[in-house]
Amino acid sequence: MNSLVILCRHGNTFEKGERVYMVGAREDLPLTSVGIDQGRAIGDAINASGLVPRAIVSGPLKRTRMFAEEVRMATGVVGDVLLDSRLTEFDYGAWSGLSNEEIVARSGAEALRRWQEESVRPQMIEFSPSEAVAHAEALDVLRELEAREGCAVIVTSNGRLRAFGRALTGISGAFKVRTGHACVIIRDTSEWRTIGWDLSPEELRKELRAAR
Description:
This protein is α/β, with parallel strands linked by helices. The chain has a single domain, classed as Rossmann fold (3-Layer(aba) Sandwich). The protein has helices at residues 33-49, 62-75, 100-107, 109-118, 131-146, 158-169, 201-211, and strands spanning 3-9, 55-58, 82-83, 150-156, 182-187, 192-199. A 6-stranded mixed beta sheet has the order 3-2-4-1-5-6, sandwiched between helices. A hairpin with a 4-residue loop joins strand 5 (182-187) and strand 6 (192-199). Helix 1 (33-49) runs parallel beside helix 7 (201-211). The chain is globular, with a radius of gyration of 16 Å.
């Protein structure tokens, strides 16, 4: 094994009963207490697998930085979490801050369904960065991690993880990752291979042990 990367989605940002809305680059929300526990659970799963990350890289928003710090403490990684603007969640334009019901009222149910289930961006609503730029940035991050043997952890958000999924596979698909869940990719020949997507902490622990 040359390189193994754990791609994580940050934990919860809404308390139970709160209004839930589209959270993008403009909404710099902190984690809830549950979200903090989710970060610790992912870190504990990595630690239990016997892997020690050589680097933990996070987007600069509060929710990803807080999650990454919980992972860092749980895994005993020495040194600061590295911040990378290429992991900043998308700016969802006119959808930012809207609930699903408000998005449907504005753009229609099919537009929301296609984004949620197929990662197809809506017409007439501009997300930033563009799909091409997000694809290129995902590949650039992975190329830089190829030089690091061993394990690295990336903490980012839902839209960026969708871009990683497309960049890794070259196909369309949802590539959704739930809050506090993770994906595992490995490069042991000439390309990256996905060995687990949208994994709970317990599923992550099992996949990492099998990959060692």
